[in-house]
Every structure is written in structure tokens, then in C-alpha cells.
């Protein structure tokens, strides 16, 4: 059945009119019944088996037509009865006139409802930027659909859509450009949905879509892929731009049987999509829900650990290959999780960063290391300790005064302290010459960590005057490969020309150690030489010889 109504999204075909058209097909014996309001009929179509797409019909004849009149007898539309069969159908004029009157009255009722709906939307339910319904109307409409549906006969899908990297575009080109882009995105989404689908703006760069009257997940996947494709086409705006979207999908009834549960499931699927590289659609699953619950528990445990400062510091020796003696230790943050055991920063630092706690944990580590260094220098006054800090902390104006106060408070030699900051912080402009020079005057040297994977150049190294480079471990892995050896030799040569020390980390084999020693790498560290140790045990080790 094809129906062409005057009711724009979010209305699907009203149930009253659906029933009348279905009755007409059965009563008149024709294949398609349709109506239009003050427009020419489009080429007729017939629903496919899955009822979600339409098939073009051939050899269709407009067998009978009738005008639709309102209560003032004014013509406002036309009723068409179509037949694609070869035989004629004799329809009595009075039968057609009776049905036309019924349809006209039904349309009058629905038009009144539509007018009331538009009035309601105009009173705060329409987003002024995109002219899409806001979340208040969305909640009402999806709840209405769910109330009408039963798990046995109908499905619907909720799609949570987010524009990837929108904040970056907004920051780069300005809020006016961002608003123009959002309007264009809304228009493309609207044009690539079915007439019965509901599109709403949720806020910011987020949209929520409901796909009602579904019979298969394949239909949902097809629509999601179509939305992905249509938005990947460049936008010709003030600044040409190409974007992508991430989509989270939930289904009624299997993923939830109420509005809030379905939306929460789609939102969770969207989060998983963005965490896994964006630019993709993710279905909600029970495994995803379990993972989310476990993550929430983990975050709460991490917050508690941060509050109580139940983290630990381990220390890994750094060996001078010329003397085969320990020349320092790198302080490494660890968390003894009550259920999961000893965790390295890769498992929890990203979460601390998302919680805005990166600088606080760095400050705690700096304080603990300087205090530990003061105790150890009573035993060995040549001891050097290295601390990893984030680029965010390195860019803090109070970093210098914090370290200066701690050094003075614990009366230790500034030369005993190294600060290590990753090369990626240099790309984010979190490292500046002024801070390095100020630390140098204080006596604290700076090392560039994970060197080799970023985009720093020779001029930057010279300007920053860093004293040490720590080669990223990926250059040490598979060192038997000729290309790895060439890259590492080049980095060692450059460092030597600038009189910069090189530390190779992640040494796990004797072959790696021998190659580095042969090519004049000054300092190494890794599990081959010693694993990280707690403070209580590391001084008990023989610090003199490592071969």
C-alpha cells in the first residue's frame, strides 16, 4: 500500500487512515489505494516483503478517481484507486463516493491533530537551529510508539548519532561555522531517512533517530550505512569540510522496552563506537553492557584509590654501559588493584586524565620521589631519580615553584632529579624553552621520553636544549631487522652530534644489549637487567655490577 499524506515527519500514516485504505483495497479488489493533497500523484509503488522498501510498479492504471472535499465542500485533494492487473474492476460510483467521504473526514481529523501538534512543537519543542524536534517531543513520540507496539508484532530501533571531531572543527572555524555545519548535517540526515522515521536534535553535535515499523535488523544496518555514506561527502560551506559520524544502535524489544532503557543502550553503544576509532556503527549487546558495568566499578575503585593515595612507586635501574654501573632509577607508578592485581599506568592513567586528575597524580608522584630521594641520598649521594610527568603538568605555570619548594624542603641536590616528558607533549606545544631553561638554572634536567614516534625535528631539539633522549621501545623490539638498526643508528648519531645522552628502554635480550653497547648507546634499562622494584627492596640489591 502506498500512502502520500500532507503530514511531515515525525508522523507516520495515521492508524485511522491506514485502516480505511486497507479496507478499500479489500473491498474494491484493487492493488493500490493512495491519495494526494493538491499535488499530482507520483509514480505508484508497492511495498516489498519486508515492508520497509518500495518496489516500482509497471503497467499501473488509474482506474478510478474521486475528489476529496472538506466540510465546506472545498476540494483539497484527490483519491486514486490503482490497479496493476489486466482485468477491469467495476466500482459503483456511490461506493467510491461513500469511501471518499470517509477518507475526507479522516483527513480532516488528522489535519486538526497535526495543527495541534505543530502548535505544541512551536511552544519550545523545536530546536531553533535545525528546526528538528527536541528531546522532549522525542520522548513523547517514542513512548507512544512503544505503547502501541507489542514485542511479538513490531520492532523499532534507536540510533544515537555523534559528529566525530566536531569540537575541533568548532574551535578551528568558530561557532557560527559550527552552527552552519550542524544545520547541513541535520538536512542530510533528514533527506536520507524514511518518511516515517523520527529525527531529533539531542544537543550539541548529537542527534537521535527512531526507526519505527521494522521487521529486520538488516534494514537498520542498511539505513545506518546510508547515513554514514551521505555524511562522508564533503560539505561546501564557508570552509569546505569532510566529516564522519559515530552511531550507537539499540532495538525494541530485545534491548529495552521503555524509552530510557533504549536510549541508554544506544548511548552506551555510541560510546563504544567512539572508543574504537569512531566513524562506525555499533550495536548494543549484553556483553557491552557487562563491560560498561565493569568499567564503572573500575572507575569508582580508581577514584577511591586516588582519594586515599593507595598507589605505589616502583623503581627500575638505569645502567651506564661504559661503566656497567647503575647511574639512576626511573620511578614508575603502579596500582595494586584489590581484584586485578598489580596494574601499570596504561590501565588507569587514561581514565585519570578523563577525570581531570592527571596533574594531581603527577604532583603526588613528584612529592613522593623527592621525599624518597632525600632518604636515599643519606646512603648514596650520587643517586639520580627520573620522574615521568604528563605534558599537561609540564605546561602548568606552578610546576617550577612546586619543584623548587620541594627541593628546598627536603634539602636534596637538584642534579639528582630528572623530569621525563613525552615527545607527543612537544607536538601539543606543552613543552617550551622557557620552562626547560628555568628548570636547568634550578639544576633539574629534562629528558624527552618515547623519542622517535613523534614529529620533533633537529631544530626543536637544539632550541629546547634537552639533556637526554629516551628511545621508544618499538625501535628496540625486533632490533635484528636491518631497517630498525638503520633508524636507531641514525638517532644515536644525531644525539651524539648534539651532545645529548641516549637511554634505550625495554631491553629484553642479550642481543639487544650487545648491539646497543657496540653502537655507543650510553644508558639502558629493561627486564633483562632488572625488573622494577619496590623501594624497600631495591637498595638491598647489589648496585655495583650489571653485565
Overview of the structural elements:
The chain is of the alpha/beta class and 547 residues long. The chain has helices at 15-28, 93-122, 135-148, 166-173, 175-191, 217-232, 259-275, 286-308, 349-354, 358-376, 391-394, 399-410, 423-427, 433-442, 458-464, 482-497, 510-518, 535-538; strands spanning 32-36, 45-47, 54-56, 61-69, 75-83, 155-163, 198-203, 206-214, 245-252, 281-283, 311-320, 325-337, 341-343, 385-388, 417-422, 445-451, 468-471, 501-505, 523-525, 533-534. It is built from 18 helices and 20 strands. The strands form four sheets. Strands 11-12-14-15-16-17-18-19 form an eight-stranded mixed beta barrel, surrounded by four helices. The protein is elongated, with a radius of gyration of 34 Å.
Number of helices: 18
Overall structural class, as computed from helix and strand content, comes to alpha/beta
Please indicate the percent range of residues in DSSP E strands (runs of 2 or more).
Answer: 15-25%
Characterize the biggest β-sheet: 8 strands, mixed, barrel
**Which parts are unreliable, with pLDDT below 50 for 5 consecutive residues or more?**
1-13, 44-57, 542-547
Chain-averaged pLDDT: 79
> What form results from the Cα inertia axes?
elongated
| Rg over C-alpha atoms, rounded to the nearest angstrom | 34 Å
Helix content: 40-55%
Span between termini:
84 Å
For the largest beta sheet, what order do the strands appear in spatially?
A: 11-12-14-15-16-17-18-19
Q: How many strand units? A: 20
